[in-house]
Amino acid sequence: MRILLVEDESKTADYLRKGLGESGYMVSVARDGNDGRHLIEEEEFDLIVLDVMLPGLDGWQLLKIVRQRGATPVLFLTARDAVEDRVKGLELGADDYLVKPFSYAELLARVRTLLRRGPPRELDTLQVADLHLDLLRRKVSRNGERILLTNKEFALLHLLLSRQGEALSRSFIASQVWQMNFDSDTNVVDVAIRRLRAKVDDPWPVKLIHTLRGTGYMLEAPP
Questions:
Q1: Of 10, 54, 57, 16, nearest to 34 (Cα)?
Q2: Confidence of residue 33 (pLDDT cuts 50, 70, 90)
Q3: From CA 79, how far away is CA 75, in angstroms rounded?
Q4: Could you give the strand order of the β-sheet that contains 74-78, starting from the edge strand earlier in sequence?
Q5: Which residues form the Response regulatory domain (predicted)?
Q6: What is the spatial distance between Cα 110 and Cα 20, in angstroms, rounded to a whole number?
Q7: Which of 11, 30, 69, 177 lies at a CB distance of 3.0 to 4.6 Å from 35, suitable for a disulfide?
């Protein structure tokens, strides 16, 4: 199991690297937020332990980067003990929050719990290329520009993004978005896709929603 520790306090970082190493984990240490971002983007980890107050990018910013990339478990380890800080961390997508000073035995127990959890929960944010969907806030943007969608358009885009790179049949899309089966000659899916494209694809040169003749549709960034 690989753990990334992003911690700027040298004594704490060295202590945890030694302890977690002796407990059988491979530990990489980043001493500031910028190094942390580099490792997050370049390598794969089974767990990330983050401080909040860091030189460069802070822990909140790093957590957003982690969540854009996947569902790697994140444990905040920080001196920020205010209730609003804990709530903020969990709302941004952290899996656990431990306040300094801490007991190593408790930290190790929390690490083990996070690493043996089942399948990760659904991501709160989804992204492909410059298209970004925030599930909790129900916001969609492309290249930083806000896109207003109806409830069905949002549900349709969420389905396409969550299954990006997969060929989805019209009947599957209909069953997932409208919760019912449509007759094969019904063009409701085609109409909905056309309306969605007008908002998320047509204004930009790079197209993300692709038609698969005889099959259905796929959302995928071009190579």
A1: 57
A2: very high
A3: 13
A4: 26-30, 2-6, 47-50, 74-78, 96-99
A5: 2-115
A6: 12
A7: 30
Is residue 119 very low, low, confident or very high in pLDDT (cuts 50, 70, 90)?
very low
Q: Which residue, chain included where needed, has tokens 């925030």?
A: 134
Classify residue 130 as exposed, middle or buried by CB count within 10 Å of its CB (0-12, 13-18, 19+). Answer: middle
Sorted by where each begins, the domain ranges of the chain are 2-115, 125-219
| The pLDDT value given to residue 70 | 79
CATH number of 125-219: 1.10.10.10
Q: What are phi and psi of 208, to 5 degrees?
A: -110, -25
Is the pTM value of this prediction over 0.70? no
Task: Please name the amino acid found at residue 157.
Answer: L
Instruction: Tell me if residue 223 falls in helix, strand or coil.
Output: coil
Cis bond leading into 101, ω under 30°?
Answer: yes
Do domains 2-115 and 125-219 share one topology? The answer is: no
User: 64-70 long-range CB contacts below 8 Å, 24 or more apart?
Assistant: 64/92, 64/93, 64/125, 65/37, 65/40, 65/41, 66/40, 66/93, 67/92, 67/93, 67/123, 67/124, 67/125, 68/125, 68/127, 68/132, 69/40, 69/41, 70/120, 70/123
Report residue 180's pLDDT band, with 50, 70 and 90 as the boundaries.
low
**Cα dist. 111→96, 121, 206 in Å?**
9, 17, 41
Q: Has domain 2-115 been given CATH number 3.40.50.2300?
A: yes
Range with lowest mean pLDDT among 45-49, 87-91, 147-151, 204-208? 87-91
